[in-house]
Design a protein that fits this description.
disordered N terminus
């Protein structure tokens, strides 16, 4: 996302820019792209956020003007992303956390959401690495297809292999999520990526 608008789904076309969970996925993740495209990107490791970790998730989402209302009460699983090459965080104190993200899984379909990269870690490819790690985690947990909504970063996600799709083609369980039903505007681009062998031709992610 643009430095002045860190939210992945944030855009001037609606008045709830700060409520778009994808905003960080677009802006801060896009900002985290390496300035030198030939440079090998970083590795990140994911840790499921416990109660203390959720404090970190909420803080980073709030810093990016992203909603935090359902972080503790919703069905999404949130993660802390750490630099895979940095061993200084072995005691779990969170010093090496480079970003956060979540996946809300419904059967074998999932919703990529609440992705944000620490400002100090942007520009080195952590956005792409974080999304890849979330996709891998979702795939290993049974998701065949991931969906997301974005108002400003369709190009970023397209480079990661996502394609724009009509909302009507999205499984009902994903369309009924808070992000689809309440937080994101109708103008947001709906995107899909098949991440596992279980993804079916209709994009539902079922066998």
């Amino acid at each position: 996302m643009a430095p002045s608008d860190r939210r992945a789904g944030g855009g001037p076309e609606h008045d709830r820019r700060s409520s778009d969970p994808d905003a960080s996925a677009e802006s801060s993740a896009a900002e985290a792209e390496p300035t030198n495209p030939t440079t090998t990107g970083p590795d990140v490791t994911l840790t499921e956020a416990d109660a203390a970790g959720l404090d970190r998730v909420e803080a980073l989402l709030a810093a990016n003007d992203l909603p935090t209302e359902d972080v503790r009460t919703g069905p999404g699983q949130f993660y802390l992303a750490r630099d895979g090459d940095d061993e200084s965080d072995g005691d779990g104190d969170g010093d090496a956390v480079v970003g956060v993200g979540g996946v809300e899984r419904h059967g074998s379909a999932g919703l990529l959401r609440s992705v944000a990269v620490e400002e100090s870690s942007r520009g080195d490819g952590y956005g792409t690495a974080l999304c890849a790690a979330l996709e891998d985690r979702a795939r290993r947990e049974g998701a065949g297809t991931l969906y997301l909504l974005t108002t400003t970063a369709a190009g970023f996600f397209e480079r990661l292999g996502y394609e724009a799709v009509d909302r009507e083609s999205v499984p009902p369980a994903i369309r009924s999520t808070t992000e689809f039903a309440e937080l994101c505007p109708a103008s947001a681009t709906c995107m899909r990526k098949r991440v596992g062998e279980r993804a079916s031709s209709d994009g539902t992610g079922t066998e």
